[in-house]
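#struct-pred

JT: dropping the chains for the assembly here, can someone run the whole complex?
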Amino acid sequence: MSRHEKRALTAGIERELEALDAALNGDPVHADYAPLGELTATLRSLRARPSEDFARALDGRAARGFARVLGPADTASAAPRRRRARRALMPAVGVALSTVLLAVLAISLSGGSDRRQPAPVPVVGRSAPVSVSPTLSVPSTPARGTASPPTGSAGAGTAAGAAASPSASAAPAARPLERTSTLEVGVAPDTIQSAAQRVFTLASAFGGYVRQSNVSSGAGAQGGANFDIRLPSANLSSAIAALSHLGHVRSENDTTNDVTDQLSSLERSIGGLQAERASLLRQLAAASEAQQEASLRARLHAVEVRISQLQGALGALRSRVDYTSLALSLTPEAAAGATSGDLTPGGAAHDAAQILEAALAVLVIAAAAALPLGSLILAAWLVAAIVRRRLREQALDASA
Amino acid sequence: VEESLTLTLVTPHRADTPKQRLERLYGECRDDVYAYAASLLGDRSLAEDVTALAFERAFRRRRLFNARRGSERAWLFGIARNAALDELRRRKRTSALLADPPAEPWAEDEELDGVLRRATVRSAVASLTPRERELIALKFHAGLSNPDMARVLGVSESNAGTLLHRTITKLRKACDEQA
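RK: done, full complex below.
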């Protein structure tokens, strides 16, 4: 008992309680407190004692470490006890499940937004995937025709774009965007050539093609490679993510231009000219004079030339929408390490640091989400404990 | 000058395992737990069940005991109290009518004064409220110290002492009235 609490009791109460303890311990009690000692002895004599049979049985169970033996009373309350045990485990199970769920969610979200991750490549060929680097797997060269480069004609360009980007055709509400991207990747100087080869493979695997390339190898900073790549717009993100694994991304730039108005304007113009051509054809069929016929033919020729020009422009525009131009530069970089293809301790350490960084980020996100959830569960558990305690006390009060 | 050096080898005391501690506690408290449960429940059969259940739970949770939060005795009686109150709740739900524990039979050589005194005190205890009866059971039947009582009841030590004194005073008054 603390000094402060002792002071809270009056001296008389303290003396009586001490006399009571002395009587319970069998010590002599002062004559002033003899009635209290007598009462204590009487109360002590009223104490119930267990039967010999019960004491023997309980001793036996104690010797066996109280292994679960279901007696009649236990059987009656076994199911509620199991339910209570399950209820007690519920918060822990809930926290575990929530953490796992949040971790999965965080991983999937980070995977969706991080273009450095090797994204799944759309299957454009029937062949089995071919391993390009230890951390990257892409399909082999696509089947002929499925991702052929766009030509100058509108029909071919549109067909190729539609084949390579099914998502674009499946989403008519999406506004057509013309995109251009630049990507600069630092690679180890001695792996410029092998990295350049992989660029061709990857471009092809993602349904695109290398329009122009310039690869130069040399000692130190003299080497390097530049590529002008055309990629299906639908596969651009995945392709950039895959190309980023060639080395260390030094810079990346994306430019978009909404060409909805240009497209609709061209289509309207072509429609108008086609209507005019049809009208001219009808007039030509009805013309009886040679001069009138010559005039109509000249106008018809001019209209057809104009239609052809506009269709070319439309095809080129659709081609730029369906296929994005990616300017890729591979620049020599000593610290690029293993990510350019060769497994070196420095590169492995770099990769390991990146993995740890990502894992830490996931943990932070999971903790941020789990903290309020854990607080709620703790609060619920506390409320349940308080309610249970109150119910027990009520049961005691009601037992009068 | 003769110098002598005495070396005393001290064998380090190996602390008991939780199981050993609990076995010792069982030996010390078996009858006390039963007496407390019998007083609280007023039924010998239920008291046996609750006593067994309390020790079973204590054995199962023996690793959760924290000495900084009170003595082992207080911890054990806390478990027994919860088990007994759960039993009271269950009995309330089933609406079973139970009689007070039967009085101990009179001993052949017991004097009449003693018998009357016991009957008076028993009757006076019965006139107390359930909470007051529990205090009597914890102190006189279970033999708990005031700090242990405070721990079991979840009150401060001074509050436990005050409550006990108040109950004893009321009990003595009731005994005088009965006499």
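JT: nice. Confidence is low (pLDDT under 50) at residues 95-99 of chain B. Residues 58 and 76 of chain B are 7 Å apart (CA to CA).
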